[in-house]
Amino acid sequence: MKKIIVNIYIVLVFCIFFTSCTSIYTPADQIIPEHIKNIYIQPVINATNQFGIESSFTNYIIDEFMMDGRLSIVNSPNETDAIVTVTVKRYMLEPLPIYDVNGVIEQYKLWVIASVSLLDKDNNISLWTEPNLEGIQIYRDTTRRQSGDSFGDGMTEEDARQLVWAKMSRNIVRRVIKGFGSVTSISSKKVPS
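Now predict its structure.
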């Protein structure tokens, strides 16, 4: 009987020891500073050869901030507490090796990489920068299909682009509101040159 009690005691000591040593470190959230009540969304800068994508992406970002509602959006950088800057660095449309019976490519991967930063205008400091924010959408192309032969889940490049803008806009708002660690950039090694 004493042997059983001693064994139980040893097991309890080990359990207490190992559970106290396995606590996981989680850094404190770095939320947006309290003095920032409004924000200016600088028009997206397009550093790619893809014409006309900047205005649509800017509108998606503004809409996402409006839906979130925690920060007011202002129309001038002179009357704001913070400025969001977005630069689209890469816009890649890759054909995937999936073919139909005629040897025509059926699927594509739209891959967009942007640099995003938040400037605290009152203190004139950069609060954070995401150098390689990524947006990916894989889709079946409906524009290259012959009439009457279409996919139910297909879309155009413009449809795929709008889905990418929506995902990236949500990530930008999440990063601004919730701070560091809420969205991460992809490794620079993964970005094609």
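The mean pLDDT is 83.
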